[in-house]
Amino acid sequence: MLKALEKAGILVEALPYIKKFSGKTVVIKYGGAAMVNDQLKEAVIMDVILMKLVGIHPVVVHGGGPEINGMLDRLGLKSHFIQGLRVTDEATMEVVEMVLAGKVNKEIVALIQRFGGKAVGLCGKDGGLIQAKKRFELVKNEAGARVPTDIGFVGDVVKIEPGLVRELADRGYIPVIAPIGVGENGESYNINADTAAGELAQALEAHKLVLLTDVEGILRDRQDKASLISSLRIDDVPALVEEGVISGGMIPKVTCCVEALQGGVGQTHIIDGRLPHSLLLEVFTDKGIGTMVLK
Ligand SMILES: Nc1ncnc2c1ncn2[C@@H]1O[C@H](COP(=O)(O)OP(=O)(O)O)[C@@H](O)[C@H]1O
Ligand SMILES: CC(=O)N[C@@H](CCC(=O)OP(=O)(O)O)C(=O)O
Prior knowledge:
Blueprint: H1 4-21, E1 25-30, H2 38-53, E2 57-62, H3 65-74, E3 81-82, E4 85-86, H4 90-114, E5 119-123, E6 130-140, E7 146-160, H5 163-170, E8 174-178, E9 180-182, E10 188-190, H6 193-203, E11 208-213, E12 231-233, H7 237-242, H8 250-262, E13 267-272, H9 278-284, E14 291-294
Parallel strand pairs: 1-2, 1-11, 2-8, 5-8, 11-13, 12-14
Antiparallel strand pairs: 3-4, 6-7, 9-10, 13-14
Helix pairs in contact: 3-4, 6-8
The protein binds adenosine-5'-diphosphate (ADP) and ligand 2.
Adenosine-5'-diphosphate is lined by residues 31-34, 63, 65, 84, 213-215, 218-219, 222, 245-250.
Pathway: Amino-acid biosynthesis; L-arginine biosynthesis; N(2)-acetyl-L-ornithine from L-glutamate: step 2/4
Enzyme class: transferase
GO molecular function, one term: ATP binding
């Protein structure tokens, strides 16, 4: 049990951070891998609600990769990834949209409401929020050259229309956003949730972008927790990707941090969403956790 003085100390420690972030936007990417159990989900949601109550504008962008895999599995469809991105044919796109915009999005909204917050769920189609076009992923061929490769209905963000999100945030709501983009002809695009979060953070001129995931942060050696890279300069990122230290799902994460910083976002962090209240620790305490990617 914490003694009263210690509890007070914790609150006092939070004060400068509350003051610093009041009125500022913090984009939180809540990944499927960090949504593994209800207890953890509730802890994340409570942190987000607390942020809102002290005057910060949290915006949640969620993933749901494992949920999509589960549903594809039940339907007898295969999951296939290239460089961390799901190869998305028409049937897969239908499932992705149903799971992300239909199921996961509304579950998060309901949870926020249940714990006393106010939330509105959107996908990138609502109000033209995330406008996208087909992405051609650069993939190394046998000769080692990077060639543009068709991976189906995977989208690149063309434009973000952030007005609606700002209005909702100003009116006391926590916007919850599913990473589905809309094309010129109203077609849907599957956008990696980290990428969508990074783009939204830029468009909203966010103070901070926090990516919650299922590892401690960026590890130099994935078998060794002690090898956590606690701060990483953007200039050092390409070499770590080239060496294979950063691979798979970590590639879109670190790329989106780099782009967000270049696009004016103040701070970017990759933290462990499995650790209860990691978000709170990151935002309100002196104790840095996870990996901070910085300019
Ligand atoms: N250097 C690294 N450090 C930590 N994790 C890494 C690294 N390189 C690749 N990864 C992988 O990236 C994963 C996180 O990405 P992903 O599975 O897409 O998570 P999320 O669902 O949270 O977006 C980790 O679980 C790990 O398997
Ligand atoms: C193009 C692409 O890969 N889209 C992702 C979108 C969901 C996502 O990013 O979920 P996590 O954050 O839980 O990984 C997918 O289909 O899995």
